[in-house]
Design a protein that fits this description.
Blueprint: E1 2-4, E2 15-16, H1 28-40, E3 43-49, E4 53-56, E5 61-64, E6 67-73, E7 83-85, H2 99-108
Antiparallel strand pairs: 1-2, 1-7, 3-6, 4-5
Length: 112
C-alpha cells in the first residue's frame, strides 16, 4: 500500500509508504501499529523488517525502517493522506515519490 501526501511543503502530493515517527519508549513495531491506526484507521500485524534507509533532505536527515505488515482488523482509509492505493511491487517505481521513499520503491519495486 502506498499513500499520497496532502498538498503543501516540500513533499506535498508525493507518494510515500504510510508510517511515522517512533515515540520514546516504543519499538519500531509498536510505532507502525500506532501510526497505521492513526493514518489509515485499521490494525496491522508487523511481520518483517526491511533494510534501513537514510536520506538527507536540505533541512534534515531521515531514517526510514520499512516494516512489512498484514491487516488484522478493519479496512484502510485515507484519514491523513489525499489518497491511498494498493500497488503491485513491479509498479512501485511508476509513482512520484518523496525522495526518501523513492529509495525503498527502487529497492523493492523489482522484487516479486
Amino acid at each position: 500500500m502506498i499513500a499520497r501526501r496532502r498538498s503543501g511543503g516540500p513533499t506535498g502530493n508525493k507518494w510515500e509508504f504510510p508510517g511515522g515517527k517512533i515515540d520514546p519508549g516504543e519499538t519500531a513495531e509498536q510505532a507502525i501499529v500506532r501510526e497505521i491506526s492513526e493514518e489509515l484507521g485499521c490494525i496491522v500485524e508487523p511481520s518483517k523488517r526491511l533494510a534501513l534507509v537514510k536520506h538527507t533532505y536540505p533541512e534534515f536527515i531521515i531514517f526510514l525502517l520499512p516494516i512489512c505488515c498484514e491487516i488484522s482488523e478493519g479496512n484502510p482509509s485515507a484519514l491523513e493522506h489525499a489518497e491511498i492505493r494498493w500497488v503491485p511491487q513491479k509498479q512501485l517505481i511508476d509513482y512520484d515519490w518523496a525522495d526518501a521513499d523513492l529509495q525503498i520503491a527502487k529497492r523493492y519495486g523489482e522484487a516479486d
